[in-house]
Predict the structure of Putative E3 ubiquitin-protein ligase LIN-1.
Amino acid sequence: MASASSSSLSSTTHSHLDNRLDLDSILSIVSLVNRHIQCFLSNHAARKFLRLKCNSSLTISNHGCFEFSQHSVLSNLYWGMENIELAIQSNCQEERNSRLTKSEKMLQIPAFIEEDGSTAGIENRYIVCCSYFYLSLVRKLRRDEWQMTMYFLQSVLVFPQLVRKELAPGLWRRLFGSLVTIRDTEEAVDEAAKQQGRRYKDWLMYYQVVSYGETPPWIKGCSVADNCMREAQNQQYTNFASRKCFNSLEQVPTWASFQMGKESPEKILSTDADLSASNTGERNYLPGYSSPQCPESYALDSPSYSMNVEICKANANCLLSSRSHSSLNDLRFSMLDLRDVETCTFSYCSVEDGTPPRSSPPHDLRCFSNFSSKFKRKYRISEAVPQGSFARKINFSNSGKDRSDESSSYRKDNHTDLLERFEKAFSTLCFSEGPGKCEDDDLEVATIGEILNTKKKVKYSSVKQEILDQLLDIISTSKKERVIRASVSMLLLLISEDKAVIEDIKKKDLHLNYLASALKRNVQEAAVLIYLLNPSPTEIKGLELLPALVEVACNSNGQESLSLPITPTSASIAMIEVLVTAFDYVTNSMHLGAISSPKILSKLVNVAMNKNLEEGVALAAILVRCMRLNGNCKKFLSQVTPVDPFLYLLRRNERHAKYVALEYFHEILRMPRSSAIHLLHQIRQHGSISIMHMLMACIQQAELKYRLLAANLLVQLDMLEHSSGKSVLREEAIEILLESVASEENCSTQTLAAFILSNLGGTYSWTGEPYTAAWLIKRAGLTSVHHRNMIQNVDWFDPCLQDTERNAWSAKTAKGVIKFGRSIFNALARGIQSKIKSVSHDCLICIAWLGSEMAVMGPSSLRYYACEILLREITHFLHPGSELDERILACLCVYNYTSGKGKQKLMNFSEGLRESLRRLSGYTWMAEELLKVTDYFLPTKPRVSCVHTQILEVGHVGSGAATALIFYKGQLCAGYSDGSIKVWDIKGQRTMLVWEVKDHKRPVTCFTLFEPGDSLLSGSSDKTVRVWKMLQRKLECVEVIEMKDPIQKVESSGDKILVITQSRGLKVCHESRSIQTTCKKKHVKCLTVVQGKVYLGCTDSSIQEVDIMADHKTEIRPPTKSWRMQNKPINSILVYKGWVYCAGAVVEGSSIKEWRKRCQPQISIAMERGTNVQAMSVVEDFIYLNCSSSPSIIQIWLRGLQKKAGRLAAGSKITSLLTANDIIFCGSENGLIKGWIPL
């Protein structure tokens, strides 16, 4: 096989050299294209005609939609063409250069799009072809005829038909007309032109590369005087050239643009590479130009001119003496000739005495020592090429020669040998086509490696820059993946030899773009190179690498890697970690969403099995972010992810590995308790007893945050087996938690410790939300759907709240914690006083949890001690103004800790505390029981404070009146007259608009909660009822129910939706969405639902009780009879604690039984004459009324005494009313929402 490979390589190379185009032919092609482009540019009418024709073809179709990025491509092409015309017409050289630079940048954007497909309805190949054609005009105007020809030939390769018919038909005939026969079809002609154009372009690039760094072949015939003039121009402009830079995001370098770094056509730089390198730090020469002109500063008779002539003569002698005089087929003008010339630089030439040139001093020299051996390891040269083959001809090892020999004869022979080998290697890489050439390519890559490995000392700085430029240009322009891969590998090996190469690459324009393009073409090694270049997070994001990085991370090709500090997989995972952690929440979430599918996660988990330290650390950080983003990710990972890779990180001595493992376990254990217990058993099983000792070591030695995470994991693992007995490990872990809760020195660790303690015995949802408080609130008896929806971040239908293992785990964990005795409650007493809201909240949860478990254990001195030190702080949470969940938890604490001996503490309750308990009695039975006890000890009549204070005012300009209010998922939803719904997050007196939708076409008139699906219903004047759900914390409409009339009120009863419209009767929408009408003879104004019964307030002042299930109707309040026949509608009806309240011209209230008996109402409040109640709300102590006579006022009436107690001014007409958590909210005509609480 090796022999065959060698023979194939040799035949390929020789065949290619036999069919080559000589330099004269290439120069003729360049000259032909140059003349045609010159004529075209000088013809204003031709330019205008072609530009208008292209512009008309670029018109975007009016049909369908297109993305902004597509418009950007066409816009860049249009303005790129326009800037060329403006540059031609400009008389100012500076403006001309600026226009050309802008044009080139713009044209490169459409030139780089995929040739297949379309953009905004226009074929991509048309756009790309036009872009390359106009780029050739730019290069002509910059006097870069060589690159001009390259661009023109590229336009032929993209779309030959367009060039043949529109862009350059005359030039096409001159170049390819000989290929056309009478019988050829257009397709055949275009294909022949493409093949010939590809041949021309390949040889153009070939001669450009092999002559890199020397006097360009197409200007060899210039006189010594010309050389002197160029030398003088170089000295004049070299300082300016060293300062120029290209745009790092848009400029795309080509072979010519690296060679011809000039700002204007007049700035012709010297061909003396060593002088240029010493002056400017880069190569400065021009591959082609017309007859140069001497600057005025160098007149022919001036001393400067004479001196430069002598200098140039000396340099020319050095140049000619070191070159062989073989034929053109020997390719004497190669890059390696420059290395011979460099030993005879201007710096060491003595013009006066003719002293022979000297070698460079040792401190300027550099050699590659291990380059070849690394290539051999990667490409297996010894296996691919046997002795006696082409390998011997190019002499891989060269072990028989003394590379340290500095004699001139050996140096010449050595460079001749390197020259031949480089040319053959580069030729094979550039021109080999078709499959089956991998071994040949590998061999040639190794050949170039051998060239770089020469033991002869070379001038490293010059050679290095040439190599980097060539490799980057191959990466940017080559269409062959294996050539790009080889170039990337060589760059990596250069970096392994010299870390300074990294900084050199960074200085190159668009280096990251080239490497990103290589990575997207599945050159996985490019990921390592990008990683080593250390781009900023913004740069990584801008390259749009995430899909390619995920592909590399999940599908490593498994090839033998070079001896590099990091693998492509590790580099990809490290950059993915940056993309998901380094930006704002929205950007990070967007990146996480792209990698959170089960397919990708499962492959990332497989990578974790490699037990590579850096991969594991980065991967753990990524998985933690994924779990925080999406509960489904956590659920999936808990089922498929083994614990061994993360236990491996935990066992490592490196701190960052331990820390990320602790973060991972902390995050993944935030799941429903039964699943968490199962995972804890896996950790204990795979980690054995050693895992406990490792966690104890972390508790003793790690940073405080990770000491807490280790303590959390250790306590839970210890609870699996030592729940009742004494455990030293558990005691030390809990002790560090208690110390952190009690200490206020570090806010973050105090917050974390309180969070861990509060959820040790509780549970979580799959989203990671702690559900311990929700579970305790459920125990306290909060059952109303409306009340539960005042609490945030809880899905009351989540199965974790019905977890069967939760209660047993809670009891077992509580016993383990309570063994600490008084110290646990002392720490919690200090924590609950914290000024940090989350700390005091979590301590309250922990106190409620321990209290509920201690209540089951029976009376104890410890519980009484806890009551003494905690009760005062707990009662602060009972008052209105606290969050409802905190008020319920505080009530639960008071109930559990004051049982038995602690009841005496209730005697010390103030009137304010009794009032708070009374107001809570409508939410939980525990408050009602406590109220009975306090009334027993203190039989005095309780006072009622009528003073209210405003705590809230939110508004949104431009949405109209706030016409409907309701709490849903703990957030205030407001409907507006413009049809929008806004979701407000309320924390105390702070509010924030978190979501806004506008699906209704007309004003939103009402809201209600719908238990099936835990949904929200909205009614509108647009004759629709919409069903909303909170999905991923966003309010989304999931269903639309069409009605025939505008909606006035909407309610629900089980799976039925009850709707009041402007027409007669009550519309009942069943689960099948069939609509039934009941009470057809009544004009229904309002309704309320309680215990399956519907109470309707009608315009004739009657109240109807309707049993929907039995389809039974009862009139419990007859219509008012009056000789005046006045219309006295019931505008509001509601139920509170078994009483039905109605309001119209009068406010009445009685128990449901009394209403059915048609007895006189137990409460009756008459309004002033001509006044009707528009809206009403009832709480424990008060009835709030909004009347027609004072539409901007809320009247406060004492519920028990039917006495007016005060008023609240809204400032404008009130359009909606709501009471929740003892807060009275009102929406007004100007869009403001205000809230008050009683003191």
